[in-house]
Amino acid sequence: MRSTDPTGHLDPGREDQAGTGLRLRGRDREIAAVREALVAVRGGRGACVVVEGAPGVGKSRLLAELDDRARRCGFDVVSVRADEFDQYAAGAALQSVLQAHDGSARAAAGLDDQRLRLLDSIADALEDRAQRAPVLVLVDDAQWSDPATLFALRTLPGRLATSRILWVLAVRSETERPTVARVREDLERLGARWLTLGPLPQRELEHIAADVLGAQPSPGLARMLRGVAGNPFLAIELVRSFPDTEAVEAGTGAAGRLYRDIPVGFRQGVAARLHQLPEDAARLLQIGSVLGREFDLGTAARMLGRQVGSLLSGVEAALNSDLLSADGPRLAFRHDLLRQAVHENLPPAVRTALHREAAESLRADGARSAEVAWHVVMAGGPLEDDAVTMLHTAVRELSSTAPDAAADLAQRIAGLLPPRDRRRVGLLTDAAEYLGRTRRVHEALDLVDATLSDGLEPPQEANLRLVAAEIHQAAGDDDAAMTHLQQALDLPALPHDLRVLLLKTQGTGHVYLGNIAAAEQTDTGLVADAYRSHDPAVVVSVMVFQSQTSFYRGRLGRALELAEAATARAYAEPTVPYLRPPRIPALWLATVLTSTDRLGDTERVLREGRREAEALGLGWSLPHWHARRACALLEQGALDDAAVEAEAGLAVADELEITQPNPQARAVLALVETRRGDLAGARDHLRAAEAGSGTNARRYALWVSLARACLADAEGRHQAAAAALTGSFEGSEPTRLLTLPPSHWPSIVRIALRGAEQSVAQAVSGALGTLTARDDSQRIGAAVRAHVDGLLNSDPRALMSAVAGYRSTGRRLALAAACEDLGELMAASAETAQAIAYFEEAGELVSASGARGDGERLKRRLRQLGVRAGAPRLDTVGSPGWGSLTESERKLIPLVVAGLTNRAIADRLHVSVHTVNTHMRHIFTKLDINTRVELTRLAVERGDVADGTG
């Protein structure tokens, strides 16, 4: 029967053996620390403990003890133990264990980027388990964990901090693996408890010896124990090597020789034990040490040129020597230190040859590519063609879940090949592409430069420059991308398909830079050729390109038609999502819809598109889905939800380690905080947006300029506000204007007029004239043009027309702005009653939108007109407590009380789980709580548990 009291079985003096037959000695402090962590997790708050120490110091033993105690306390235990060649494994062992336990194992899809899908899968499984019982996640030998599991360990303790999950990692001290170092840094930042297992004192070693012998050690054995430097595993091995007290007495002089230097002495001791074994057993152990801590007997037999049956006596001798165990389907060294000792006793030339032979044997047997790759790396070059092909496959498999690790492996393999080898260039090109998906973008570009200096053939150079261009485009540096593309296109004798891809990417770059004429000139017959293609991805790609050029020319109807056709074709064809350059038709469709009368359809398109992107493993796109939804919600006037989506997008970008988070999201947050009246918060977001956009990034420059102008205007710095917009609008083309949704256009004119920048206001008016002349099908266009005309000409009739037009567009803040502008004209004409009516309507609209700063301004204006009451009351969301929760946050609480996980809540509300995560963080902050248990208690006390989904 399991105990339900997490403290009941955590007395460090208990005779617990955790399945080892020996009591855990000398770790009272560590046991007390994990007891505290267990209590905290039972109370509803997540925790993380990292156990660090040298090999043999007792990390695995402590984890086994914790496993046993946690199970007796009612914990659901998930345990993973890594092996050395897992460092190159695709997929996540942690995910596999969870799926195996849940009976939900699924075949891994060969997708471009599964990182977010993997994180969500693990998070969902753990969160679901934590709803039923507290969970203990144990990861032993984490320094060797597969990259995807390490990625999860870096990210999920923070994301699941409010769930009842205790994360415990055991890791060797001073590991040189960079990804492990990053896990350490991230967990330290999250406040993980660090337990460093040092050497045990002599007294505890003698207690261990007594436990092994069943009697007190002799003085001679006690003296020998001083030579193990406090290492309990080495102490146990020493005692087991000399079980006879008389033998110990006779061998007391061996202590210094064997253990004065622990690694050398221990290796010598293991070598002596092998020397005493039959030759079959010794050879089996040597081959096994090459194959890994756990190894297949059949593989070892083939490497020895023997039949399995002929090795049975050797297996028996190795088991009886207590060097091997056979508890599972494979033979295993009882401790990795034993394997390492046997392995290091082999001459280096022999080790290298055996690793090469192991790689060939395992590859022929269809073993995991990660296992083969580890042996190849251990053996070094030269490499046969088949081995390179297999390794390149391993790199590509690894890239979907751990692109940085795939890049490192690709570079290691490339280092084993001759400098001019074509295969080497291909591996380095892939490595640059994979690094470009991570925060190591500068490394990627340095690798591109270094590889270009090798004097490549034109197709190789063009491919590499294409990768560099895509990295620059993803980081927002479109100018640098165009430089690489032009240099690639200038190369001779390029394959037709590669040249077409370069031209397409160049055309997209022109669109990003707002140079639509150049984008159209890039066509050179490509559009016609694309429509004749049998590849649906090519057809969809050209549809998106045509839609983009039509949109920025102001032909919104045609742009919408093409975007919808491209989206429909993409959903019908499974290969379409992998477009180069990377684009998603539905995401572009949402952009177009936001600027049309069909703003209301944006939510459906974004919801369906985001789900499809998640299912297809297009993780890189998730920050863009959130940013686009933030823009659409801002256009609708739903400020609180817009801010949550922008924050969720930034959180996903951080999880995916995207180097340049979308500055558009930061600009949205700056605009929201300005309208809320939190100017300090707006300044913080604006600084982040300016830093994120970079000096050369122009794609989102107008968003950042608008945020800067609106903030300055709210601060009363009207000339600075207008100056922020100077140079953004020139001529009568609507291209720049269409970078922003329509409700922002009158704001630009108002700020320009207030700051005496008439030319900016006239330029916006001219662009609007061109837009409506080319496509007058959108009512929102007519309303905005009337609004702009009313501002330019102080024309109340035009503003009345704008007010009437906005009422059917679903844009509350645009309507509020028109009402306020009209109210000002009425007040200036001494038509006070009408002015008050328009101001009050504007106040109601901004209150419904959450624009508290705008509301305070309107209340001041009404007071100037003699209105002392009746202005809308605005909640102070900045204040703590239940009343500060937004409507969307309140909807979550009954679902939390009902026991739904964040994933289930997201499915119920038809939003992203990252949106729910952001809402939950806000709820906890506002209520000053840390756990779902506390939230449930508060909700029940208030009686606020009705289903909020209706």
**Spatial order of strands in the largest sheet:** 2-3-4-1-5
Identify low-pLDDT runs. Answer: 1-19, 104-111, 245-262, 871-879
Task: Please give the count of helices.
Answer: 48
Mean pLDDT: 87
Radius of gyration: 33 Å
Determine the N-to-C terminus distance: 43 Å
**Cα shape:** globular
Helix proportion range = 55-70%
Number of strands: 8
Strand content: under 5%
Structural class designation: mainly alpha
Q: Main beta sheet, described?
A: 5 strands, parallel
Describe the overall structure.
- There is one protein chain.
- Helix content is 63%, strand content 4%.
- It is mostly helical and 950 residues long.
- A five-stranded parallel β-sheet has the order 2-3-4-1-5, sandwiched between helices.
- Helix 24 runs antiparallel to helix 25 (496-512) and helix 33 runs antiparallel to helix 34 (663-676).
- The protein is globular and about 105 Å long.
Topology of helices and strands:
Blueprint: H1 28-42, E1 47-53, H2 59-72, E2 76-81, H3 93-102, H4 115-132, E3 135-140, H5 147-159, E4 165-172, H6 178-189, E5 193-197, H7 202-213, H8 219-225, H9 232-241, H10 245-250, H11 254-259, H12 262-275, H13 279-291, E6 294-295, H14 297-303, H15 312-320, E7 324-325, E8 331-333, H16 336-344, H17 348-364, H18 369-379, H19 385-399, H20 403-414, H21 422-435, H22 441-452, H23 458-475, H24 478-489, H25 496-512, H26 516-521, H27 526-531, H28 536-552, H29 556-572, H30 585-594, H31 602-615, H32 622-636, H33 639-655, H34 663-676, H35 679-693, H36 701-714, H37 718-723, H38 745-754, H39 758-774, H40 779-793, H41 796-806, H42 812-828, H43 832-849, H44 852-864, H45 887-897, H46 902-909, H47 913-927, H48 932-942
